[in-house]
Amino acid sequence: MKTLYLDCQAGISGDMTVAALLDLGVPLEHLQRELAKLALPDSSYSLSAARTERHHITALKFDVTVNDHHTHRQYAAIDAMIAASGLTDGVKEKAQRIFRRLAEAEAKVHGVPVEEVHFHEVGAVDSIVDIVGTAICLDYLSVARVCASALPLGSGFVATEHGRLPVPAPATAELLRGLPVHGECGPGERVTPTGAAIIAALADGFGFPPMRIEKTGCGAGGKDFPDMPNILRAFIGPVDAVTEVSQLLVLEANIDDSTPEVLGYALERLLTEGALDAWFTPIQMKKGRPAVTLSLLCPSGEVEKFSRIIL
Question: Nearest-CA neighbor of 268 among 282, 257, 278, 280?
Fold first, then answer.
């Protein structure tokens, strides 16, 4: 099983995500062939990917050049376009899930039913390419699980079709509900609505997961931030028996006024029930009374079971 970890310390956007995944080894030609299965005129856009630098760190910059005028689209129309395409079921499901999260956020912000949501920036060709392109790249890389770091909130204002909005934009803030975030970053929009939707829809874990790192990719954002390189790093690799580790806990209890027979039975019972190890340590308690500390090692998921046995 391949796990993908997205390091979003500088932020995340749709184009940064595609760039990082391309840098992991997805051929640009494959992305172009798959995107051609959407009902978008071939002449309406062109794709490019080139290496650049952010704070002296090399990264891949992905660009979508839109050749026709800016088009607004309803969520229902985009969902139907993806459903009717020749893309694989897995790609369709991921892309539709991302757009659904976006539509739900916009619906709540504007107070309209999801089916009536009208996308502006996200309805444009470049945003559709970013979202569907992300799903295509994940499918190509055989990613089974996506994890991410905490997301930076940013600050200030951003210009949108609705005018100047505070950062994070209202739809972005709604998408970030329930996700780990932090404010330890400079001003500016660090997480776009598309980037937030990708994480909200696809990530099922936060923090670096146990995995074998096979390859890393680096996607560049469009802006240069003074405080840090504007890059999205991607790590991919399998999870196997060596890296699949569970958290172990040590439970302890101080026991006095007990007999060797009872203590011996307790130790034998704990080991029989599956404790990884168990032992006694002689101690002194109040007023110099001799006693023992019972210690046992067990998986974190079995704490309640062994606590009941001890009590």
Answer: 278
Strand 181-182, strand 277-284: pairing = unpaired
Mean pLDDT for the stretch of residues 169-179: 92
Task: Please compute the mean of the pLDDT values over residues 127-145 and round it to a whole number.
Answer: 96
Q: Is 40 helix (H, G, I), strand (E, B) or coil?
A: coil
Mean pLDDT of 9-22: 97
Sign of CA dihedral 51, 159, 122, 131: positive
List Cβ neighbours of 277 (8 Å cut-off, separation of 6 or more): 271, 296, 297
Tell me the pTM.
0.77
Asked whether 300 and 250 are in contact (CB, 8 A), the reply is: no
Look at residue 241 and tell me whether its pLDDT is greater than 70.
no
Amino acid 155: pLDDT: 82
Indicate the domain borders of the chain: 2-238, 248-310
Q: Between vectors from CA 132 to CA 130 and to CA 135, what angle results, nearest 5°?
A: 105
Burial bucket for residue 56 (CB in 10 Å: 0-12, 13-18, 19+)? exposed
Q: Which pair of tokens denotes residue 261? A: 């027979």
- CA gap 75, 12 in Å, rounded: 22
Fold of the domain built from segment(s) 248-310: Alpha-Beta Plaits (3.30.70)
